[in-house]
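@channel anyone free to eyeball this complex?
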Amino acid sequence: MARKQDVIFRGSKDGLQLIFNDNQDFDILKEKLQAHLQRAELFFQGADVVLDIGNLNFSIDQILAIQNILAFPHGLRLKKIIHGSQEPSENRRVVAETAKKRRTLEPETRTIDYRQKTVENWAMTPKGPDTILYKGTLRSGQRITHDGNVVVVGDINPGAEIRAAGDIIVMGALRGLAHAGAGGATDVVIVAFKLEPTQIRIGDVIGRPPEGELGAPREPEVARLKDGVILVEPLDGSRWEGER
Amino acid sequence: MSEAIVITSGKGGVGKTTACANLGVALASLGHRVVLVDADIGLRNLDVVMGLENRIVYDLVDVVEGFCRLRQALIKDKRLDGLFLLPAAQTKDKTSVTPEQMKQLVDQLKEEHDYIVVDCPAGIEQGFKNAVAGADRALIVTTPEVAAVRDADRIIGLLEASGFENPGLIVNRIRPKMVAKGDMMDIPDIIDILAIDLMGVVPDDEYIVVSTNRGEPAALAADRSKAGEAFMNIARRVLGEEVPLLDLSEHETFWQKLLKLIKIE
Ligand SMILES: Nc1ncnc2c1ncn2[C@@H]1O[C@H](COP(=O)(O)OP(=O)(O)OP(=O)(O)O)[C@@H](O)[C@H]1O
Ligand SMILES: [Mg+2]
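replying in thread with the prediction:
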């Protein structure tokens, strides 16, 4: 999985923007910043810096330490600090709304031991990149098996299958079968613009839409495993990112 | 004593899968333990017609390849006790299974079930050979069309050559009005050519289309359609009962008959 970079410099209209990964330790951030500046000394000479510390809380001492690193030997000026730029108010509304729209899939109660099967399949799939992209409609009888994540730009029709060790993203309608975490991982998700599968599987849990359920809502949804049940809810990118 | 019955035709689209689903439902509703086996690997349909598609976890090829045990792959129908489906694989093709493996599988199913009903793919190639491999008895489906009857004849020849005795015939999609007008092959014409036992005649019935789309075979509510009733009767004949052929002149109500009798039509 792609990790956030710890220290990023970006040009902006206010000068140079410095973004810190808010999941990272202060000491490591300090080190990374120093290393970064050493590599790019000339380019940065004398610029104004806007520091985005995300959701981190810095003490005065820590801010002074950063100011120092910026100032010597490169002469950068710390002009402004932005805090919590991930617009929380807007976010909270969406989260409250999604809580209402959740639906669970009906669990299939037969025992499955999927690992045994997929391991065999992986053996036949050549090692490839982490994520593969498939463009087009996956039709009945067609199948993608991949030892990583799969992104499909198109629909998955009934009778078609995707099995991925990682996440599955369908930029279209998922009407067939999708199995994320086919190697046993449970912290994976299945996302589709229209999630109306015949069946989905996450890890070794199987779910299918309850009998007589009306069509899926016309909005992207994400399915993930919670307490052994597959939970489906409207997709909200920032929330999904935050929970992982 | 259990029996494996293969439903086959030669020609495609004549109603094998429909017959299979309905015969299975009918036999189970008469109290027998039944497994429907979809041998149409790569073009499976029986699961959809039975309304069980979303319950597939393992399939026939998984069993044959040893990925799961036979019992894990069987889907239990919730509507009828003793009715199971062994689905076909959709992402494989017919060569993933050999006739020997099919025979083994069917024999294994016979240990715990009374009737194994196998849905055969169209054609006379590997898929057909697989489907008939473990069967004790064959039912041939045809429509009242010259081409379908010709293919049925070819199939009967192949079956006889491989040792099948007395295959039974199901004539599907008959339209009594057309037959009456002489626009459609008549049952005696068909029997005359094929010279095998007639197991039943199923009318062309809109209810089949409706029930197929809903995943509820017509025989589940046999009193609601002539076709459902016809499949019920076929099941009884399979069990050895003597059942008279259905009166298919559906458009004649009691009043019409009465009017005809007193000649005021
Ligand atoms: N008695 C009937 N009345 C009306 N429609 C029918 C009847 N029997 C079958 N059909 C319709 O005919 C079509 C083909 O039937 P079915 O799928 O059972 O044929 P099949 O022989 O299994 O085809 P294939 O060779 O492709 O496997 C279906 O749409 C089905 O609903
Ligand atoms: Mg069929």
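from a first look: The domain at 91-240 of chain A is CATH 2.160.20.70 (Pectate Lyase C-like).
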